[in-house]
């Protein structure tokens, strides 16, 4: 090969290096999936902070109860859902498989399980609201059960996508590990 401005080696046009310039697909996928998971984690943190704010305002009675209702029972264990997100973030710098697996397991336990329980806990109140039009708990003028069902639906989607992308990331890390072992 020749230098940037000098003569070229005989028999080459200088474009034969391009096949070496590509990044392996599992590395590209790892970067992309980490980025997507980080976006989902930041969305989860926003949801978590909103629920925490509702709980603090409700318990400290900073505003009247007709403005912000007391939290439902499922919201307390959901506060632990920040732990899986932190484990997920900790797994990224060194592609730590064990942290990512712990994050996925604890996402099911601390995030998805409270959301499922919350949907079941609020179902009778939602039925009463939509059959009879009666709501007894409110969050800034909206029925609390409607607002919290919206939170449950959004949070379930965030955690579901987080689990999906984490599984794909885990697969790409295993692919890279297997290729290293073959060499």
From TrEMBL:
InterPro entries: Jagunal
Protein location: Endoplasmic reticulum membrane
GO biological process per UniProt: endoplasmic reticulum organization; granulocyte colony-stimulating factor signaling pathway; vesicle-mediated transport
Record flagged with keyword Calcium: no
GO CC annotation, single: endoplasmic reticulum membrane
Chain ranges passing through the membrane: 40-62, 99-118, 138-158
Membrane topology qualifier: Multi-pass membrane protein
One Pfam family cited in the UniProt record for this chain: Jagunal
Main location: endoplasmic reticulum
Highest rank taxon of the organism: Eukaryota
Keyword Membrane on entry: yes
Record keywords: Endoplasmic reticulum, Membrane, Transmembrane, Transmembrane helix
Family: Belongs to the jagunal family.
Protein name: Protein jagunal homolog 1
Organism whose genome encodes this protein: Ptilorrhoa leucosticta
Lineage: Eukaryota, Metazoa, Chordata, Craniata, Vertebrata
